[in-house]
Amino acid sequence: MRYYDAHCHLQDERLAGFQGEIFALYDRLGVEEVVVNGTGPEDWDAVAEMARDSALVKPSFGLHPWKVNEVATHWKLILSQLWDYYPEAGVGEIGLDRWIEGHDLAKQEPAFLWQFAQARERDLPVSIHCLRAWGRMQELLSEVSAPERGFLLHSYGGPAEMVKPFAKLGAYFSISGCFELEKKEKQRAALREIPLDRLLIETDAPDMRGPERERMYRCGRDETANHPANIVHVYEFVARLFEMPLEELVEQVEANYRTFFCGD
Fold it and tell me: Which domains does the chain have, with CATH numbers?
């Protein structure tokens, strides 16, 4: 079976020194491609280097909403140059966040909208982060044109009643392993509303770790980190969530991934 991770952060310092192990496991498990998302100027070069070193890595470059208050004024120029040099890259991780302390939507929104417009103009896949800002996110996406291929709401944690309106606007939705945690039953009910042809799967590694499992992979130095090879466990969880055979889910997600990320 072929697995695809729609959103992760292999460049994260918590995974430093484990990349060789990770890629060896990818090969053994049948992982075909992983989307590695940059979050700011401090990690964009690392993402680019990974993409140069491995055909499994699909790079994505974006300014995360947590970084808008600390970025240099020429960040748009740097991003534009990266997208010019890596035309196969995505846009992300970008978005809105009212959860983080000291959030500033007055800065987050224009940064998000400029990057979203770049995805549309360049016809690139875009990965959107949203926390405690779902209503405002829907308003903004309703007011602008989306890329023809749509957009990805990564690790979707919004309400069930917003799934259909977002899908109508062009959304894909990716599910991460943290939604298997016992306390996430409300979110699981919302995830069951996702149309199968808009479903993607991610680890968000080294974040969004799921519950303890017998065969869970671990990163040696940080017991709390989510190992990227746990992507198979997330697929297994999602297959149970949608009450469908794992083989059928794998085929559906591959088709969705290739439509959204590859334009197939």
Answer: 3-262 (3.20.20.140)
